[in-house]
Amino acid sequence: MNALVSASHGVPAAPPLLSAHGLGRRFEIAGGASALLARRPRRFLQALRDVSLELAPGETLGIVGESGCGKSTLARCLSGLDRPDEGSIRWQGQPMAAGSTPLQRARRVQMVFQDPYASLNPRMSLAQTLDEVLQVHALAATRGERADRVDELLMTVGLAPRLRDHLPHALSGGQRQRISIARALAVGPQVLIADEPVSALDASIQAQIINLLEELRERLKIAFVFISHDLNVVRHISDRIAVMYLGQVVESATTEALFEHPQHPYTRALLAAIPQTDPSRRSLVPALVGELPDPTAPPAGCSFSSRCPWVVGACRAHEPALLEQAPGHAVRCSNAAARSAGALDPGAAGALDPIAASQGEGRVSAP
Amino acid sequence: MNVDAGSSQLEVEDLRVRFTTPTLDLTAVDGVSFRIEAGEVFGLVGESGCGKTVTCRALIRLFGGSPPSAIEGTVRFAGRDLATLDERAWSALRGSEISMIFQDPMTSLNPTMRVGTQIAEGLQRHRGLTARDARAAAIEMLAAVGVSAPERRHLDYPHAFSGGMRQRVLIAIALACRPRLLIADEPTTALDVTVQDQILKLILKLRNDIGMSVLLVTHDIGVIAQTCDRVAVMYAGKIVESGATAQVVSRPAHPYTRALLAALPAHTRRGDPLRPIDGEPPNLAAPPTGCRFHPRCAFAIAACREVEPPPIEVEAGHRSACLRAGELG
């Protein structure tokens, strides 16, 4: 039984607000007409594999991982925009779909996307964008009430109500992201799923949006799922963090535990790869070598085995389970216990290191 | 072209780039000066629209569909004034002595050409290699930038490569002729953090191996701190601070650099709010008078609105264009 990515250890607390149990999602790779004619077997990309997690009321769960690890598919499944092929999503312990309409479900969980320009209708003013949501969900009785609520929403996200008739193109990137947040808040959700909400913004503006999200969390008691590839941002905002690799959660822990005592080799590489602003801490050795494996044909056994400096034969034979190494700290690695005891050295088992091998010969020769 | 003893690889003096359309007249780069020594990695850092990319493109006179109406100032490469070059001389220089890699590895490669051919092209053109020798050199370059199985992969088309691998291919193209200067404009911004780490370390390793100079443009101060020897900070078309990386990052002497560093989540304790920079970057068609940062600056005094601050040397090699640089300490 895999450990849940969960905060409530040993405490028979209320069921989590939102939880996922063994989620699996796969996409068929279109082979084109030639594949069809040649009767090649259908190929699938397993975007999510056995993903389980829990979100407590008011909590912020960070999800990190690199392109193609399944973070966005997970976000779409949790928000109901996509349906998992396996596993289930529960709301306060009950199946999400039980006894609720799609509109009711939309009022529980809302999403904020990465590119605020692409996710706003360019021909609708800010007021129209927000007004539409209020109408669809029948959240205000009269036109006047809706107008009041629109102004209130604009102010909630730090925009002046005089901007209500502006179109998205007249706004800066930061202001557009504020509107996306206002639209998500319009229905009064209990969970906000933010998929790379600040990745397209400059550092100074990024800080404004992160402060806004934190302020909203305090004021409205919303729980967040915060998805990002930027570990510094996730570290700042999250209570707990789940690290994903090739569709699986490979490690989950409280933010402190993950950054102070990372267990999984992939997490360690990810943390080592963050560019530090301290120029005295430089190294010429890459934190991680090799390429992400073909997601349609992940490595046998542990999915990280093709790039892991600690890999041993058993890693390629058996797929490790996500197991608790310490209370609240789960790791999907067969060697986690041995390694943290110092019994294994990186490279002892012959690390696969194609880049170092080719670079080691210093082969940039003059033609 | 011989490098004169004592002269820099690249000297840029008072560079100005102006764009004029019927509805718009703006100076994207306004009096930028810097020099890059042989074998040095020089960083240019700033936020969107500060003029970093326009500076790069002005250096090699490549603007694509929207050329500026005027480029002023002096650019000397290995002692030679580039303003005197005709289009023929430029073609001989670009890709051979000076190479550039762009931000987006998805659109910078020719999708209809095998990557090996794209690497070999420059070698045949600039170095007069035979097709066979150029192909062998292309395979060697792919191996050098860390593409596994290069004997097989040089025959692949760009679509068969991941984003990180495409950026490696671009670096292989840029470095095939062993340029003296590599201009890298946000080379890792579109890439994942572990791939970024691999690419930056690869650039550093190649700098050490072949001794080229690098102009690295980025918005990420972490990337600068990990990669560059010296750095210049740009704001609204001007350089506001420059110096050795350790000086600028550890002892920032311009309020903008300070604010930019303070806004990073890594520099804030968890639980504390971040410290964003108030306001928005100025409109370059109508920049603020005096110091361009003064409307957003916490240290601004009345004089900042009137006087355009000259660069002041706050310590050896470390300059700040701030009237109050001496007091910031």
Q: What do the pLDDT scores of chain A average to?
A: 85
* CATH architecture descriptor name of the largest domain in chain B: 3-Layer(aba) Sandwich
Largest interface: which pair? A-B, 56 and 65 residues
Q: Strand fraction band of chain A? A: 15-25%
Poorly predicted regions of chain B: 1-5
In N-to-C order, the SSE pattern of chain B is EEEHEEHEHHHHEHEHEEHHHEEH
State the distance separating the first and last CA atoms of chain B. 43 Å
Structural class of chain B: alpha/beta
Query: What is the number of independent domains of chain B?
Result: 2
CATH superfamily of the domain at 18-123 and 167-275 in chain A: P-loop containing nucleotide triphosphate hydrolases
Structure in a nutshell:
The complex is a heterodimer of chains A (367) and B (329). Chain A has 13 helices and twelve strands. With 367 residues, chain A is of the alpha/beta class.
Describe this structure in words.
- The complex is a heterodimer of chains A (367) and B (329).
- The longest helix of chain A has 18 residues, at 203-220.
- Chain A has helices at 32-37, 71-78, 102-108, 126-136, 143-156, 173-185, 203-220, 231-237, 255-260, 265-273, 313-317, 336-340, 354-360, and strands at 18-29, 43-55, 60-64, 86-91, 94-95, 109-112, 191-195, 223-228, 240-245, 248-254, 323-326, 329-331.
- Chain A contains 13 helices and 12 strands.
- Chain A is globular.
- In chain A, strand 11 (323-326) and strand 12 form a beta hairpin.
- In chain A, helix 4 (126-136) packs across helix 5 (143-156) and helix 6 (173-185) runs parallel beside helix 7.
- Chain B folds into 2 domains: 10-97 and 179-328, P-loop containing nucleotide triphosphate hydrolases (Rossmann fold, 3-Layer(aba) Sandwich); 110-177, no CATH class.
- Chain B has helices spanning 52-60, 87-93, 115-127, 131-144, 150-153, 163-175, 193-210, 221-227, 245-250, 255-262, 302-306, 325-328; strands spanning 10-21, 24-36, 41-45, 70-77, 80-81, 98-101, 181-185, 213-218, 230-235, 238-244, 312-315, 318-320.
- In chain B, the strands form 2 sheets. Chain B has an 8-stranded mixed β-sheet with strand order 6-7-8-3-9-10-12-11, with helices on both faces.
- The longest helix of chain B is centred in the middle third of the chain and has 18 residues, at 193-210.
- Chains A and B meet through helix 7, helix 8, helix 10 and helix 13 of A and helix 4, helix 6, helix 7, helix 8 and helix 9 of B.
